[in-house]
Amino acid sequence: MNLPHYSYFTDDFREYEFYSDGPNGRIKKRVTFTRVQEKPVVYNLALVDVISDSGAISDLTVSDNGDRDIILSTVAYTVRDFSTYHGNHLIHAKGSTSVRTRLYQIAISGLFDEISIDFEVYGIIDNAIYTFQRNVNYEAFLVRKK
C-alpha cells in the first residue's frame, strides 16, 4: 500500500492519534481498536475527533477539512500497524451514521485497488458477509490484513 497519509502515533498499538490539516485548521483524530468478539476474534474500529483538551471525543463531528481520503488511508495504515502487532484479526468498521457509512464505502471504492494489495475487504448486509464489490451498498465493513 502506497497512499498519502498522515503521521500517527501510538503508545499501545490499540489507540492511534494523528492530525487532520486543512482549511478548517488542525484537527486531532483518534482511531481506537476494541475487541468485540472472541471466535473468530473481531475488533471494532472507531474513528473520532478529539474535541477538547480534556480528551472529549465525538464520532458525529463533521470536520470537513477536505482530506477524507488522506484520513481514511491513515486509518488503513493504523489497521496494518495494529494487525502486525496484535495479530491478523478481523476489523469491523461502520460509520456512526448511515451517511458516514456511505462516505466510507465511497472512499473504499475509490481506494480499493490500492487497499486490496494489503487487505481482504468484506461488506456486511443483513449480518451476511460478502467479498467487497464496488457499487453495492453495505451496512458495515470487515477488513483483514493479507
Written overview of the protein:
This protein is of the alpha+beta class and 146 residues long. It has one domain (8-145). The chain is 27% helix and 38% strand. It has 2 helices and 9 strands. The chain has helices at residues 68-86, 98-118, and strands spanning 8-10, 15-22, 25-37, 42-50, 57-58, 90-93, 119-125, 128-131, 140-145. Strands 1, 2, 3, 4, 5, 6, 7, 8 and 9 form a 9-stranded mixed sheet that branches. A hairpin with a 2-residue loop joins strand 2 and strand 3 (25-37). Helix 1 packs across helix 2. The longest helix has 21 residues, at 98-118. The chain is globular, with a radius of gyration of 14 Å. The chain starts with 7 loop residues before the first strand and ends with a strand. 21% of the residues are buried. The mean pLDDT is 91. InterPro entries: DUF6934. Pfam families: DUF6934 (PF22028).
Whole-number tally of structural domains: 1
Q: Report the end-to-end length measured between terminal Cα atoms.
A: 12 Å
Query: Structural class, please?
Result: alpha+beta
Provide the residue-averaged pLDDT.
91
Strands, count: 9
Share of helix, binned:
25-40%
Which parts are unreliable, with pLDDT below 50 for 5 consecutive residues or more?
Answer: none
Query: What is the H/E string?
Result: EEEEEHEHEEE
Gyration radius (Cα, Å) is 14 Å
Q: Shape from CA axes?
A: globular
Quickly count the helices.
2
**Major β-sheet annotation:** 9 strands, mixed
**Proportion of strand residues:** 35-45%
Pfam family, one: DUF6934
InterPro entries: DUF6934
